[in-house]
Design a protein that fits this description.
By secondary structure, the chain is of the alpha+beta class. It has 19 helices and 36 strands. Helix 1 (3-23) runs parallel beside helix 9 (438-527).
Length: 893
């Protein structure tokens, strides 16, 4: 199924639902049955929950984190997650009343846009008891759950205490919100009982990937048994083992107890694994600790011995740096040595091999290597692209890295292995491939021999095969002609398919924008009337939803054009500082409403006059600023621009947008630039969005010969960087000053015009009403025509100052009507200003309108301030053209 088409159909259905909500704002409230039990919501399919069914619940709060905000509640039937738009004033254990609508959620249905009222103290329900296998079915999600197990690891984060508990043959992560100062080592190996609200981690296919339990207070955890308390508080009391002694047979060794191993660091994967060298034996230590150590550091690790793929590993471990030293030397080995006994698993090895190919994915770079009769892979966690591109296929390399042997076959013998390389220094090029290799020489001699033989055969058989060759040539010509005809037919089919796709996107854009104009326009008109506070709040929510749907449509159209390779840049001369000011001004009101300070700073050495595409640059900046405002609850947002590099007449500018928002986890940074991906499931629960904005930004920056990257720390904020290559233009005569401003509010002003006689060409009755009321508010006189012929007749009979022309109309479209008016203008020696007001908003539509003789262009849905500004610009040009020579039509946006 085409994901773009599915999203468009979903957007169209959402638009219809919003229109129904607006039109029913004063009429009889919802005819759909109200869901009054959590189990009714949980029983809905994702498609049913997406319809926004009304909800009215009375339930007890089982978990509440105001900083997120995360809210789980439970009534007598089941538990459910409430996606709060803002943190309510409630506490765990309270009885609350919730009204809202259903949403599909990312794993199970949820309640969206809740209105919450506290009723008083409540009683927590009895926790349900489910096995680990039952939890894997998703039945426990959002439920008040009681379980037990053994703590394997404990890590204190910035806001939560994280406990990994082995329970029922699997592992569950406990997230404790409120906890006292604890000696975390005393918790490890303790048997505990706990209760909390079940959560989950999941992928974008709504599939479960992990189990979580959200616990409000540490009092909800009961420690039943602590093994050897003195030993838990002193790691030195645990037995010290060599890496090669782990999981050996010993009748005296305890079951499930931790051991202590000492070794020298060879590599660290922060927050995941630590590789140690203990004598001749390497060891992989799995740990959640976020403590940096360097190769050569001496550490002690305390953890649980566990089965690895080929050799034992130390699981759920903690480590302490006890000394420093030189990085250990790698073990010199060949592929035969590594696979002979598998003894080099987790060791730092050095091996010579030939590079066969190189590949890159979102998680790193991989090299396919050949050593002897074996092929293995070498992978980088992080590597500069220039280093990767400098490696030529066929080169002989000396690689140093952590060896991980992979078993296979019925007896699980060593079958293959892979190397994890730490840095570019782990690659040494021994020999680069020359052209005159043995393989190339064989091919050359082979072609030469074939050429000589063919020439001799041709000379000998020429006379006897003239006629046969002639017949063969004729047959070949016929086949070639048939092939060319087939190719031409295929080309025409491809062009038709591409044309159909473009027409489909254009039609979908038109069909959605036309009712969207009605929704936004009518909502605006109703908001300007006398309303109750509740009605005004409902209509404001509906307008925001409609604007979000319009933004979704624009994102999908942009993404479709980029995927089809039809997105192009239109370089013009523009002012850098004006572009940055326009971008920040567009979001200044949203920032002020959240109490955020919005700053913009341009380095003094950055030129103001540039040649580039300001619309696409502004689109990237608006996307990044909008994300910053969305994910920042307090503090400030800063946008900076400076010169990154000057080279051969081109200038590379460096832009950055920093915020003090929620931040992004390190392991999620790469995913945010993928289409339809977000950092985690709670993002869409709390903030919404489709995950296309940053993808479009990355593609547009790539088109501007730049790159985009991000620096972020969860809870501290993010800094998005990107570069763009442009040309310097001649500076304006008045020069420029360094820009360093603070924006508080957006108060656009448009020049006004006197009362005008305006002819409105529009076939849609709703749009006629909206535009007419907008114009009459400024004192303009409006005449409405419902089709192209009626428009032409009204213009010929009347004396109008301006025409607002729809493009898609019955009987005669806007282009035909404009052509007829311009022909009459030419005969009369007059010029009637015409502004296109149309739902055609695809690539080239604006240029077609201007080329057809129109003076301006507005894409639906039409906002009043944009309409007034467009009229003012066109009428100002009309007045100036009466005194000067006629000017070429200019764009009006």
């Amino acid at each position: 199924m085409d994901p773009h088409g599915a999203l468009l159909r979903h957007g169209f259905r959402t638009g219809i639902l919003l229109a129904a909500l607006v039109s029913a704002g004063v009429a009889a409230p919802g005819k759909q049955p109200v869901l009054e039990h959590a189990s009714q919501i949980r029983d809905l399919s994702a498609a049913e929950a997406a319809k926004g069914l009304p909800v009215h619940l009375k339930a007890v709060v089982t978990y509440y984190d105001a900083a997120s905000p995360d809210l789980f509640v439970q009534d007598a039937s089941a538990g459910i997650y409430i996606a709060c738009d803002a943190p309510p004033s409630i506490e765990r254990g309270q009885q609350i009343e919730i009204t809202g609508v259903t949403g599909p959620g990312d794993f199970v249905p949820v309640v969206l846009h809740p209105r919450i009222r506290a009723l008083g103290p409540g009683t927590l329900p009895k926790p349900i008891q489910l096995s680990f296998d039952e939890l894997l079915t998703g039945r426990g999600d959002s439920q008040w759950f009681g379980g037990e197990g053994v703590i394997k690891s404990a890590v204190q984060g910035k806001r939560h205490l994280n406990l990994w508990v082995a329970s029922g043959g699997g592992q569950i992560k406990l997230i404790v919100l409120k906890f006292p100062q604890l000696d975390l080592q005393r918790l490890v190996e303790a048997r505990v009982r706990f209760r909390g609200a079940v959560g989950a981690t999941f992928n974008n296919k709504r599939q479960l990937t992990g189990l979580l339990v959200f616990i409000q207070n540490f009092d909800d955890i009961a420690i039943e048994r602590v093994v050897d308390e003195p030993a838990q508080t002193n790691a030195s009391l645990y037995p010290l083992r060599h890496a090669d002694q782990l999981l050996r047979f010993s009748p005296e060794e305890g079951v499930g107890r931790r051991v202590r191993v000492r070794g020298v660091v060879t590599m660290q994967q922060l927050g995941h694994a630590l590789f140690l060298q203990d004598g001749d034996q390497g060891l992989m230590v799995l740990t959640h600790q976020l403590v940096h150590v360097a190769p050569g550091d001496l550490v002690e690790a305390l953890g649980f011995p566990a089965l690895g793929e080929f050799a034992p590993v130390l699981q759920d471990a903690i480590f302490t740096r006890v000394g420093a030293g030189r990085p250990p030397k790698p073990i010199r080995a060949t592929a035969d040595d590594i696979l002979k006994e598998g003894e080099h698993d987790a060791n730092l090895v050095e091996i010579d091999a030939r590079l066969l190919s190189r590949t890159r994915d979102l998680h790193g770079d991989s090299l396919a290597m050949e050593s002897g009769n074996y092929i293995f892979s070498a992978r980088f966690e992080q590597l500069d692209r220039s280093v990767m591109e400098s490696l030529e296929e066929g080169s002989d390399l000396r690689l140093t890295g952590i060896c991980q042997v992979e078993p296979g076959g019925e007896t699980s013998q060593a079958q293959s292995f892979r190397l994890t390389l730490r840095s570019p220094a782990d690659i040494v090029v021994l020999r680069r491939p020359g052209w005159w290799t043995l393989s190339h020489t064989r091919w050359f001699l082979g072609f030469l021999a074939l050429g000589v033989i063919a020439a001799l055969a041709w000379v000998i058989l020429l006379r006897r095969r003239v006629q046969a060759q002639t017949m063969a040539l004729r047959k070949g010509n016929r086949q070639l002609s048939a092939a060319l005809d087939a190719a031409e037919h295929s080309r025409k089919l491809a062009q038709e398919a591409n044309q159909l796709k473009s027409e489909f996107l254009a039609n979908m854009s038109h069909e959605i924008r036309t009712p969207m104009n009605g929704i936004l326009g009518m909502t605006g008109l109703v908001l300007e009337s006398d309303l109750s506070d509740e009605q005004r709040e409902f209509l404001n929510d509906a307008r925001k939803s409609a604007e979000s749907l319009l933004a979704l449509l624009n994102d999908i159209l942009d993404f479709s054009k980029i995927e089809a390779g039809r997105m192009e840049l239109y370089p013009i001369t523009f002012s850098l500082r004006d572009c940055l000011k326009n971008a920040t001004s567009a979001l200044a009101v949203n920032a002020e409403q959240k109490g955020l300070q919005l700053r913009v700073e341009v380095a003094p050495e950055a030129p103001d006059a540039l040649v580039g595409d300001p619309l696409r640059l502004r689109q990237v900046l608006l996307n990044l600023l909008n994300n910053a405002v969305k994910f920042t609850h307090a503090g400030s947002i800063e946008m900076r621009a400076n010169v990154y590099e000057r080279r051969e007449g081109a200038i590379t500018l460096h832009f950055s947008v920093s915020d003090t928002g929620v931040g992004i986890p390190p392991d999620k940074i790469e995913a945010i630039f993928e289409a339809f991906r977000q950092a985690d499931g709670s993002i869409s629960r709390n903030y919404g969005g489709t995950g296309l904005g940053l993808t479009i930004c990355a593609r547009l920056v790539n088109m501007m010969a730049g790159r985009v990257w991000v620096e972020s720390e969860p809870g501290q904020g993010s800094i998005f960087h990107f570069t763009a290559v442009m040309q310097e233009a001649a500076e304006s005569s008045n020069g420029h000053q360094p820009a360093h401003t603070v924006l508080h509010q957006n108060q656009p002003e448009h020049p006004s015009t006197g009362p005008l006689r305006i002819l409105l060409a529009e076939d849609n009755a709703v749009n006629q009403t909206i535009v007419t009321r907008m114009l009459r508010k400024l004192g303009h006189s409006v005449t409405v025509a419902g089709n192209g012929r009626e428009t032409l007749a009204s213009w010929q009979d009347g004396n109008f100052d301006l025409i607002l022309m729809d493009i898609q109309m019955p009987l005669m479209d806007g282009f035909e009507c404009t052509a007829a008016i311009r022909l009459c203008d030419q005969r009369r020696g007059t010029h009637t200003p015409i502004i296109a007001v149309t739902a055609h908003a695809m690539k080239g539509d604006e240029e077609r309108c201007l080329a057809a003789g129109m003076d301006g262009y507005l894409a639906k849905p039409v906002r009043s301030q944009d309409l007034y500004a467009a009229i003012a610009r066109v009428m100002a040009r009309q007045e100036s053209s009466a005194e000067e020579a006629p000017a070429e039509p200019q764009r009006t946006v």
